[in-house]
Amino acid sequence: HPLKSMSIKGAIWYQGESNQTRAVQYRTIFPGMIEDWRATWKQDGFPFYFVQIAPYDYGPVQSSPELREAQLLTLSKVKHAGMAVTMDIGNPDDIHPTNKRDVGKRLALWALAKDYAQDVVFSGPLYREQSIEDNKIRIYFNFTGSGLEARGGPLTHFECAGSDQIYHPAKAVIDGETVVVSAAEVESPLAVRYGWTNTAEPNLFNVEGLPASSFSTDNWKRITEGSK
Q1: What pLDDT is stored for residue 179 in this prediction?
Q2: CA distance 81 to 95
Q3: Strands, DSSP E only, in 75-166?
Q4: Which residues in 97-122 are b (16+ Cβ under 10 Å) and which e?
Q5: What's the confidence (pLDDT) of residue 1?
Q6: pTM to 2 decimal places
Q7: Which residue of 28, 65, 132, 186 shows the fewest CB atoms closer than 10 Å?
């Protein structure tokens, strides 16, 4: 608050670990904080770029994917916001992973593209929508860049669920700029999720080397709902 009389170009933000047990609440308070900063500086829409929290072993309760989801949802709620995904450069045993160079590079890509008019790919694949095709689900993404690729082998950390809302490990294959997901245990799939554990280090990227965010296509009850 003492800085409010100073000029500001924009902000970068790296936080969320302490809120991961209250992830649904974060869907409201994080965008609210951004808009409050903009109101305080009287600069509607100054750029706000943030880092999605990295994989870390928070314990048996799988709440941090819900915090990453809240951060992903912020992109659709707040204008001129950007998110650097770190699913591949964290450390499940260290809540403060040491690779900050790539974090900085990924934040810089958002600024270069959005504020300095450079023609660069600035984000990895972000979930857009799904379509159900018989016993499979096709996933569509924004920011596929020059194409999708799986690093180091077949796609990992995809799961599929039907009306019982129980997720099962799924097979996922890249088909053009989409991913097709199916599970033998799920005859009539309704939803897909990806990277949905505290420590997941999945392998979907775009060709430019930027990783996909974790996501869930369902709108079912979250384990952090009601947490304060």
Answers
A1: 98
A2: 24
A3: 81-84, 126-133, 136-142, 148-150, 158-161
A4: beeeeebeebbbbbbebbeeeeeebb
A5: 87
A6: 0.96
A7: 28
Residue 15, CA distances (Å) to 67, 89, 102, 197, 214 in order: 11, 16, 16, 18, 17
For the record, the structure tokens of 86 come out as 């770190």
* 33 residue type, one letter: M
Bridging pattern class, strands 158-161 and 148-150: unpaired
Contact 183, 189 (CB under 8 A): yes
Q: Per the structure block, which two tokens stand in for 65? A: 């994917």
Take residue 40 and report the two structure tokens written for it.
């305080």
Residue type for position 118: Q
Strand partners, 158: 194
**What is the CA angle 174-62-99, rounded to 5?**
70
Strands 167-169 and 81-84, by their bridges, are unpaired
In sequence order, what are the residues at sequence separation of 6 or more whose Cβ sits closer than 8 angstroms to the Cβ of residue 121?
109, 143, 145, 146, 206, 208, 210
Per-residue model confidence as pLDDT tens digits over 56-105: 999 999 999 999 999 999 999 999 999 999 999 999 999 999 999 999 99
Backbone φ and ψ of 224, nearest 5°: -95, 5
What are the angstrom distances between the C-alpha of 85 and each of 23, 181, 188, 204? 17, 22, 31, 12
How far apart CA 170 and CA 220 sit, in angstroms, is 19
